[in-house]
TrEMBL record:
Region (Disordered), start-end ranges: 1-28, 296-323
Cited InterPro entries: MeTrfase_TRM5/TYW2 (IPR030382), SAM-dependent_MTases_sf (IPR029063), TRM5-TYW2-like_MTfase (IPR056743), TRM5/TYW2-like_N (IPR056744)
Record protein name field: SAM-dependent methyltransferase TRM5/TYW2-type domain-containing protein
GO molecular function terms attached to this record: tRNA methyltransferase activity
Segments forming domain SAM-dependent methyltransferase TRM5/TYW2-type: 124-397
Bias (Basic and acidic residues): 302-320
Residues annotated as transmembrane: none
Pfam families listed in its UniProt record: TRM5-TYW2_MTfase, TYW2_N_2
Entry keyword set: S-adenosyl-L-methionine, Transferase, tRNA processing
Length: 397
Protein backbone atom coordinates (compact mmCIF):
# COMPACT_ATOMS: atom_id res chain seq x y z
CA UNK A 1 0.00 0.00 0.00
CA UNK A 2 1.40 3.39 -0.93
CA UNK A 3 2.00 5.78 1.92
CA UNK A 4 -0.95 4.54 3.93
CA UNK A 5 -1.64 2.57 7.06
CA UNK A 6 -5.04 1.16 7.78
CA UNK A 7 -6.63 2.33 11.00
CA UNK A 8 -6.70 -1.36 11.81
CA UNK A 9 -2.93 -1.60 11.88
CA UNK A 10 -2.94 -1.64 15.66
CA UNK A 11 -5.68 -4.29 15.89
CA UNK A 12 -8.56 -1.92 16.37
CA UNK A 13 -11.87 -3.51 15.60
CA UNK A 14 -13.41 -2.61 12.28
CA UNK A 15 -16.39 -4.10 10.61
CA UNK A 16 -17.23 -4.90 7.03
CA UNK A 17 -17.01 -2.12 4.47
CA UNK A 18 -20.75 -1.43 4.87
CA UNK A 19 -20.26 -0.81 8.55
CA UNK A 20 -17.03 1.08 8.48
CA UNK A 21 -18.21 4.42 9.83
CA UNK A 22 -20.15 3.06 12.79
CA UNK A 23 -17.29 0.79 13.86
CA UNK A 24 -14.69 3.51 14.01
CA UNK A 25 -14.45 4.33 17.68
CA UNK A 26 -13.51 7.69 19.21
CA UNK A 27 -10.36 6.00 20.38
CA UNK A 28 -9.41 5.13 16.82
CA UNK A 29 -10.28 8.61 15.63
CA UNK A 30 -8.12 10.22 18.33
CA UNK A 31 -5.22 8.05 17.30
CA UNK A 32 -5.80 8.70 13.60
CA UNK A 33 -5.88 12.42 14.22
CA UNK A 34 -2.58 12.14 16.03
CA UNK A 35 -0.90 9.93 13.47
CA UNK A 36 -1.98 11.42 10.18
CA UNK A 37 -4.94 12.51 8.12
CA UNK A 38 -7.67 10.11 7.10
CA UNK A 39 -8.41 8.66 3.70
CA UNK A 40 -10.85 6.03 2.52
CA UNK A 41 -10.15 3.32 -0.01
CA UNK A 42 -12.56 2.69 -2.88
CA UNK A 43 -12.25 0.60 -6.05
CA UNK A 44 -10.87 2.76 -8.87
CA UNK A 45 -14.07 2.65 -11.01
CA UNK A 46 -16.05 4.09 -8.07
CA UNK A 47 -13.71 7.07 -7.62
CA UNK A 48 -15.92 9.78 -9.11
CA UNK A 49 -19.15 8.61 -7.49
CA UNK A 50 -17.43 8.18 -4.13
CA UNK A 51 -15.86 11.65 -4.27
CA UNK A 52 -19.22 13.26 -4.98
CA UNK A 53 -20.87 11.28 -2.23
CA UNK A 54 -18.11 12.22 0.25
CA UNK A 55 -18.38 15.82 -0.87
CA UNK A 56 -22.14 15.77 -0.31
CA UNK A 57 -21.61 14.37 3.18
CA UNK A 58 -19.19 17.24 3.77
CA UNK A 59 -16.27 14.95 4.63
CA UNK A 60 -14.18 15.14 1.44
CA UNK A 61 -10.86 16.88 2.07
CA UNK A 62 -10.03 19.12 -0.90
CA UNK A 63 -6.72 20.05 0.69
CA UNK A 64 -5.08 16.71 -0.10
CA UNK A 65 -4.63 14.86 -3.38
CA UNK A 66 -6.13 11.46 -4.10
CA UNK A 67 -3.53 8.71 -4.45
CA UNK A 68 -3.39 5.21 -5.93
CA UNK A 69 -3.38 2.34 -3.48
CA UNK A 70 -2.90 -1.40 -3.94
CA UNK A 71 -5.37 -3.87 -5.50
CA UNK A 72 -6.78 -1.32 -7.95
CA UNK A 73 -8.01 0.92 -5.16
CA UNK A 74 -7.78 4.67 -4.78
CA UNK A 75 -7.25 6.55 -1.52
CA UNK A 76 -9.61 9.51 -1.18
CA UNK A 77 -8.79 12.10 1.51
CA UNK A 78 -11.50 12.70 4.11
CA UNK A 79 -11.75 14.92 7.17
CA UNK A 80 -13.67 12.30 9.15
CA UNK A 81 -15.13 8.84 8.50
CA UNK A 82 -18.14 8.92 6.17
CA UNK A 83 -21.51 7.74 7.39
CA UNK A 84 -23.30 7.39 4.05
CA UNK A 85 -20.66 6.61 1.46
CA UNK A 86 -19.70 2.98 1.09
CA UNK A 87 -15.95 2.53 1.33
CA UNK A 88 -13.67 -0.51 1.46
CA UNK A 89 -11.32 0.68 4.15
CA UNK A 90 -10.14 3.63 6.20
CA UNK A 91 -6.44 4.44 6.15
CA UNK A 92 -3.99 7.06 7.31
CA UNK A 93 -2.10 8.92 4.66
CA UNK A 94 1.43 8.85 6.04
CA UNK A 95 2.93 11.36 3.64
CA UNK A 96 0.03 13.08 1.91
CA UNK A 97 0.39 15.47 -1.00
CA UNK A 98 -1.29 18.77 -0.19
CA UNK A 99 -3.11 20.53 -2.98
CA UNK A 100 -3.24 24.23 -3.58
CA UNK A 101 -6.83 24.80 -2.57
CA UNK A 102 -7.60 28.21 -3.91
CA UNK A 103 -8.05 29.04 -7.59
CA UNK A 104 -6.34 32.39 -7.11
CA UNK A 105 -3.32 30.65 -5.55
CA UNK A 106 -2.97 28.34 -8.55
CA UNK A 107 -3.32 31.20 -11.02
CA UNK A 108 -0.90 33.33 -9.03
CA UNK A 109 1.76 30.64 -9.33
CA UNK A 110 1.23 30.91 -13.09
CA UNK A 111 2.04 34.61 -13.06
CA UNK A 112 -1.43 36.14 -12.82
CA UNK A 113 -1.28 39.65 -11.39
CA UNK A 114 -3.68 41.15 -8.84
CA UNK A 115 -5.47 42.87 -11.73
CA UNK A 116 -5.77 39.56 -13.63
CA UNK A 117 -7.16 37.85 -10.55
CA UNK A 118 -9.92 40.48 -10.33
CA UNK A 119 -11.24 38.87 -13.53
CA UNK A 120 -10.94 35.25 -12.41
CA UNK A 121 -14.18 33.40 -11.60
CA UNK A 122 -15.21 33.74 -7.97
CA UNK A 123 -17.35 30.60 -7.86
CA UNK A 124 -18.15 27.47 -9.80
CA UNK A 125 -20.24 24.33 -9.43
CA UNK A 126 -19.21 20.69 -9.41
CA UNK A 127 -21.93 18.41 -10.79
CA UNK A 128 -20.78 14.80 -10.77
CA UNK A 129 -17.39 14.96 -12.42
CA UNK A 130 -18.16 18.12 -14.39
CA UNK A 131 -17.12 21.59 -13.26
CA UNK A 132 -19.39 24.41 -14.47
CA UNK A 133 -17.89 27.87 -14.33
CA UNK A 134 -19.12 31.28 -15.44
CA UNK A 135 -16.16 32.97 -17.12
CA UNK A 136 -16.10 36.74 -16.51
CA UNK A 137 -15.96 38.68 -19.81
CA UNK A 138 -12.54 40.17 -19.01
CA UNK A 139 -10.97 36.89 -17.88
CA UNK A 140 -7.38 36.92 -19.20
CA UNK A 141 -7.09 33.18 -19.92
CA UNK A 142 -10.08 30.83 -19.64
CA UNK A 143 -7.99 27.78 -20.54
CA UNK A 144 -5.68 28.44 -17.60
CA UNK A 145 -8.75 28.76 -15.35
CA UNK A 146 -10.16 25.49 -16.64
CA UNK A 147 -6.88 23.62 -16.15
CA UNK A 148 -6.57 25.07 -12.65
CA UNK A 149 -10.11 23.92 -11.81
CA UNK A 150 -9.28 20.39 -12.99
CA UNK A 151 -6.24 20.55 -10.77
CA UNK A 152 -8.25 21.75 -7.77
CA UNK A 153 -10.95 19.12 -8.16
CA UNK A 154 -9.11 15.83 -8.32
CA UNK A 155 -12.20 13.84 -9.27
CA UNK A 156 -13.37 16.17 -12.03
CA UNK A 157 -13.04 15.09 -15.66
CA UNK A 158 -14.39 18.10 -17.58
CA UNK A 159 -14.74 21.85 -17.24
CA UNK A 160 -17.61 23.59 -19.04
CA UNK A 161 -18.20 27.31 -19.38
CA UNK A 162 -21.69 28.02 -18.02
CA UNK A 163 -23.37 30.50 -20.34
CA UNK A 164 -26.89 30.48 -18.97
CA UNK A 165 -30.12 28.58 -19.40
CA UNK A 166 -32.45 28.81 -22.36
CA UNK A 167 -36.21 28.63 -22.70
CA UNK A 168 -39.06 26.69 -21.19
CA UNK A 169 -37.11 23.41 -21.34
CA UNK A 170 -34.31 25.03 -19.32
CA UNK A 171 -31.57 23.96 -21.71
CA UNK A 172 -28.11 24.93 -20.49
CA UNK A 173 -25.81 26.86 -22.80
CA UNK A 174 -22.31 25.52 -22.20
CA UNK A 175 -18.94 25.50 -23.91
CA UNK A 176 -16.25 22.85 -23.46
CA UNK A 177 -13.13 24.30 -21.86
CA UNK A 178 -11.01 21.37 -20.68
CA UNK A 179 -10.96 17.65 -20.08
CA UNK A 180 -13.14 14.89 -21.49
CA UNK A 181 -15.78 15.71 -24.07
CA UNK A 182 -18.23 13.09 -22.78
CA UNK A 183 -20.03 15.06 -20.09
CA UNK A 184 -22.60 12.51 -18.99
CA UNK A 185 -22.10 12.01 -15.27
CA UNK A 186 -23.71 10.92 -12.00
CA UNK A 187 -24.15 13.44 -9.21
CA UNK A 188 -24.71 11.84 -5.81
CA UNK A 189 -26.48 13.84 -3.14
CA UNK A 190 -27.56 12.39 0.20
CA UNK A 191 -27.77 8.96 -1.33
CA UNK A 192 -29.81 10.04 -4.37
CA UNK A 193 -28.14 9.34 -7.71
CA UNK A 194 -28.78 11.91 -10.41
CA UNK A 195 -27.53 10.77 -13.82
CA UNK A 196 -27.43 13.70 -16.23
CA UNK A 197 -25.45 15.50 -18.85
CA UNK A 198 -24.95 19.05 -17.54
CA UNK A 199 -24.38 20.24 -21.11
CA UNK A 200 -27.95 19.14 -21.93
CA UNK A 201 -30.03 19.51 -18.77
CA UNK A 202 -29.83 21.93 -15.90
CA UNK A 203 -28.76 21.14 -12.37
CA UNK A 204 -28.82 23.80 -9.70
CA UNK A 205 -26.33 23.05 -6.89
CA UNK A 206 -27.83 25.95 -4.95
CA UNK A 207 -31.07 23.95 -4.59
CA UNK A 208 -29.38 21.12 -2.72
CA UNK A 209 -30.93 21.89 0.66
CA UNK A 210 -34.37 22.12 -0.95
CA UNK A 211 -33.95 18.76 -2.70
CA UNK A 212 -32.96 17.16 0.58
CA UNK A 213 -35.82 18.91 2.42
CA UNK A 214 -38.38 17.49 -0.03
CA UNK A 215 -37.20 14.00 0.90
CA UNK A 216 -37.56 14.90 4.58
CA UNK A 217 -41.01 16.54 4.58
CA UNK A 218 -42.78 13.83 2.64
CA UNK A 219 -44.57 11.01 4.48
CA UNK A 220 -44.42 7.38 3.42
CA UNK A 221 -47.30 6.51 1.07
CA UNK A 222 -48.14 10.13 0.34
CA UNK A 223 -49.45 10.92 -3.16
CA UNK A 224 -47.40 13.72 -4.70
CA UNK A 225 -47.58 15.66 -7.97
CA UNK A 226 -44.24 17.09 -9.15
CA UNK A 227 -45.32 19.39 -11.99
CA UNK A 228 -41.83 20.31 -13.28
CA UNK A 229 -39.90 17.16 -12.51
CA UNK A 230 -36.77 17.67 -14.64
CA UNK A 231 -34.38 14.76 -14.17
CA UNK A 232 -36.03 14.02 -10.82
CA UNK A 233 -34.58 16.82 -8.66
CA UNK A 234 -37.43 16.57 -6.10
CA UNK A 235 -39.22 13.48 -7.42
CA UNK A 236 -36.32 11.15 -6.58
CA UNK A 237 -35.76 12.12 -2.90
CA UNK A 238 -39.53 12.07 -2.32
CA UNK A 239 -39.95 8.64 -3.94
CA UNK A 240 -36.93 7.35 -2.02
CA UNK A 241 -38.69 8.50 1.16
CA UNK A 242 -41.68 6.31 0.24
CA UNK A 243 -44.02 8.69 -1.61
CA UNK A 244 -45.82 7.84 -4.84
CA UNK A 245 -45.06 10.61 -7.30
CA UNK A 246 -46.81 11.64 -10.49
CA UNK A 247 -44.05 13.48 -12.36
CA UNK A 248 -44.55 15.62 -15.46
CA UNK A 249 -41.70 16.95 -17.57
CA UNK A 250 -41.77 18.64 -20.98
CA UNK A 251 -38.12 18.42 -22.00
CA UNK A 252 -37.53 14.97 -23.62
CA UNK A 253 -33.87 14.85 -22.59
CA UNK A 254 -34.64 15.64 -18.97
CA UNK A 255 -37.49 13.11 -19.14
CA UNK A 256 -35.13 10.38 -20.38
CA UNK A 257 -32.86 11.01 -17.38
CA UNK A 258 -35.88 11.03 -15.07
CA UNK A 259 -36.80 7.51 -16.20
CA UNK A 260 -33.19 6.34 -15.97
CA UNK A 261 -32.81 7.84 -12.49
CA UNK A 262 -36.06 6.30 -11.27
CA UNK A 263 -34.64 2.87 -12.12
CA UNK A 264 -31.12 3.62 -10.84
CA UNK A 265 -32.51 4.74 -7.48
CA UNK A 266 -34.80 1.70 -7.19
CA UNK A 267 -38.02 3.77 -7.14
CA UNK A 268 -39.43 3.21 -10.63
CA UNK A 269 -42.49 1.53 -9.12
CA UNK A 270 -43.31 4.70 -7.14
CA UNK A 271 -42.98 7.15 -10.02
CA UNK A 272 -45.64 7.66 -12.66
CA UNK A 273 -43.82 9.80 -15.23
CA UNK A 274 -45.23 11.72 -18.21
CA UNK A 275 -43.24 13.45 -20.93
CA UNK A 276 -45.95 16.10 -21.15
CA UNK A 277 -47.06 19.58 -20.24
CA UNK A 278 -48.24 19.52 -16.64
CA UNK A 279 -51.42 21.27 -17.76
CA UNK A 280 -52.34 18.19 -19.76
CA UNK A 281 -51.92 15.58 -17.04
CA UNK A 282 -54.37 15.11 -14.18
CA UNK A 283 -53.33 12.60 -11.47
CA UNK A 284 -55.83 9.76 -10.91
CA UNK A 285 -56.55 10.96 -7.38
CA UNK A 286 -56.30 14.31 -5.58
CA UNK A 287 -52.81 14.45 -4.16
CA UNK A 288 -51.47 15.22 -0.68
CA UNK A 289 -48.70 17.44 -1.99
CA UNK A 290 -47.86 19.42 -5.13
CA UNK A 291 -44.36 20.65 -5.98
CA UNK A 292 -44.04 23.62 -8.37
CA UNK A 293 -40.26 23.90 -8.81
CA UNK A 294 -40.34 26.26 -11.80
CA UNK A 295 -40.54 29.99 -11.84
CA UNK A 296 -40.92 30.79 -15.50
CA UNK A 297 -38.92 31.37 -18.62
CA UNK A 298 -37.45 34.81 -18.42
CA UNK A 299 -36.36 34.47 -14.80
CA UNK A 300 -35.12 31.02 -15.67
CA UNK A 301 -33.14 32.33 -18.62
CA UNK A 302 -30.83 34.16 -16.29
CA UNK A 303 -30.57 31.43 -13.70
CA UNK A 304 -26.93 30.97 -12.73
CA UNK A 305 -26.01 27.31 -12.25
CA UNK A 306 -23.82 27.98 -9.31
CA UNK A 307 -25.07 28.56 -5.83
CA UNK A 308 -23.58 31.98 -5.28
CA UNK A 309 -24.95 35.30 -6.40
CA UNK A 310 -23.98 36.44 -9.87
CA UNK A 311 -23.22 40.08 -9.36
CA UNK A 312 -22.93 40.73 -13.09
CA UNK A 313 -26.66 40.41 -13.51
CA UNK A 314 -29.23 43.14 -13.31
CA UNK A 315 -31.35 43.58 -10.20
CA UNK A 316 -34.35 44.42 -12.38
CA UNK A 317 -37.45 42.36 -11.80
CA UNK A 318 -37.79 39.65 -14.46
CA UNK A 319 -40.00 40.72 -17.37
CA UNK A 320 -43.55 39.46 -17.46
CA UNK A 321 -43.58 35.97 -18.94
CA UNK A 322 -45.82 33.80 -20.99
CA UNK A 323 -45.17 30.90 -18.63
CA UNK A 324 -44.61 32.47 -15.25
CA UNK A 325 -44.67 29.91 -12.45
CA UNK A 326 -47.67 31.49 -10.73
CA UNK A 327 -49.76 31.00 -13.88
CA UNK A 328 -49.67 27.27 -13.11
CA UNK A 329 -51.20 27.72 -9.65
CA UNK A 330 -54.76 26.88 -10.80
CA UNK A 331 -53.50 23.54 -12.20
CA UNK A 332 -51.71 22.79 -8.94
CA UNK A 333 -54.74 23.68 -6.81
CA UNK A 334 -56.96 21.57 -9.02
CA UNK A 335 -54.87 18.50 -8.17
CA UNK A 336 -54.44 19.21 -4.44
CA UNK A 337 -56.81 17.64 -1.97
CA UNK A 338 -58.25 19.56 0.97
CA UNK A 339 -55.64 19.95 3.68
CA UNK A 340 -52.86 19.21 1.20
CA UNK A 341 -49.51 21.02 0.93
CA UNK A 342 -48.31 23.13 -1.97
CA UNK A 343 -44.65 24.06 -2.50
CA UNK A 344 -44.72 27.14 -4.71
CA UNK A 345 -41.37 28.48 -6.02
CA UNK A 346 -40.83 32.02 -7.20
CA UNK A 347 -37.85 34.14 -8.31
CA UNK A 348 -38.66 37.45 -6.65
CA UNK A 349 -36.86 40.78 -6.29
CA UNK A 350 -35.64 40.97 -2.72
CA UNK A 351 -37.51 44.21 -2.09
CA UNK A 352 -40.82 42.56 -2.99
CA UNK A 353 -40.45 39.77 -0.44
CA UNK A 354 -42.38 38.44 1.38
CA UNK A 355 -45.49 40.03 -0.14
CA UNK A 356 -45.43 39.24 -3.87
CA UNK A 357 -45.29 35.41 -3.75
CA UNK A 358 -47.72 35.38 -0.86
CA UNK A 359 -50.22 37.60 -2.66
CA UNK A 360 -49.98 35.64 -5.94
CA UNK A 361 -50.62 32.44 -4.06
CA UNK A 362 -53.40 34.06 -2.02
CA UNK A 363 -55.22 35.31 -5.14
CA UNK A 364 -54.98 31.94 -6.89
CA UNK A 365 -56.36 30.17 -3.83
CA UNK A 366 -59.14 32.75 -3.42
CA UNK A 367 -60.10 32.30 -7.10
CA UNK A 368 -60.84 28.64 -6.40
CA UNK A 369 -62.97 29.53 -3.37
CA UNK A 370 -60.60 27.59 -1.12
CA UNK A 371 -58.78 28.74 1.99
CA UNK A 372 -55.09 29.24 2.66
CA UNK A 373 -54.69 28.06 6.24
CA UNK A 374 -50.96 28.08 6.72
CA UNK A 375 -48.09 29.61 4.75
CA UNK A 376 -44.41 29.54 5.47
CA UNK A 377 -41.87 31.24 3.23
CA UNK A 378 -38.25 30.14 2.81
CA UNK A 379 -35.29 31.41 0.89
CA UNK A 380 -33.82 28.68 -1.33
CA UNK A 381 -30.90 30.68 -2.72
CA UNK A 382 -29.88 33.93 -4.33
CA UNK A 383 -31.16 33.64 -7.90
CA UNK A 384 -29.25 36.62 -9.29
CA UNK A 385 -28.24 40.03 -8.03
CA UNK A 386 -31.17 41.42 -6.03
CA UNK A 387 -33.42 38.47 -6.87
CA UNK A 388 -34.20 35.65 -4.46
CA UNK A 389 -35.39 32.14 -5.21
CA UNK A 390 -38.10 31.68 -2.58
CA UNK A 391 -40.41 28.78 -1.83
CA UNK A 392 -43.74 28.94 -0.04
CA UNK A 393 -45.04 25.90 1.82
CA UNK A 394 -48.80 26.34 1.96
CA UNK A 395 -51.61 24.26 3.43
CA UNK A 396 -54.83 24.68 1.46
CA UNK A 397 -58.25 23.63 2.76
C1 LIG B 1 -36.32 24.61 -13.30
S1 LIG B 1 -36.41 23.06 -13.96
C2 LIG B 1 -36.57 22.20 -12.53
C3 LIG B 1 -35.72 22.79 -11.53
C4 LIG B 1 -35.66 21.95 -10.33
N1 LIG B 1 -36.95 21.93 -9.68
C5 LIG B 1 -34.60 22.46 -9.42
O1 LIG B 1 -34.95 23.08 -8.46
O2 LIG B 1 -33.42 22.27 -9.67
C6 LIG B 1 -38.01 23.15 -14.53
C7 LIG B 1 -38.39 22.02 -15.43
O3 LIG B 1 -39.75 22.21 -15.78
C8 LIG B 1 -39.91 21.80 -17.11
N2 LIG B 1 -41.13 22.47 -17.58
C9 LIG B 1 -41.29 23.77 -17.94
N3 LIG B 1 -42.57 24.00 -18.25
C10 LIG B 1 -43.24 22.82 -18.10
C11 LIG B 1 -44.60 22.44 -18.25
N4 LIG B 1 -45.53 23.30 -18.65
N5 LIG B 1 -44.93 21.16 -17.96
C12 LIG B 1 -43.99 20.27 -17.56
N6 LIG B 1 -42.68 20.58 -17.41
C13 LIG B 1 -42.31 21.83 -17.67
C14 LIG B 1 -38.62 22.22 -17.80
O4 LIG B 1 -38.40 21.42 -18.95
C15 LIG B 1 -37.59 21.96 -16.71
O5 LIG B 1 -37.00 20.70 -16.81
Amino acid sequence: MSDERTVNDDNHDRGSSDEVPSRVTDDVLDRVAEDGPLAVLVPEPRTEIAIESLRTEGVYDDERAISPSTDGKIALPVTRPPTETQVDDIVRQVDPTYRTTDLDDVLETQGWTEADLENAPGSWAVVGDVVLVTIPPACPDEEAVADALLDLHGGAATVLADEGIDGVGREPQTRHLAGERDTETVHVEHGTHYALDPSEVMFSPGNQAERVRMGDVVETDEQVLDMFAGIGYFTLPMARAGASVTATELNPTAFRYLLENAVANGVADRIDAYNADCRDVAPDVDVDRVVMGYYGTSAADSDPHHSGADTSRSSEEPESRANAGHEFLPVALDALESGGTLHYHEACPENRLPDRPRSRLGSAVADTGRELVDVEQRRVKTHSAGVVHAVLDATVE
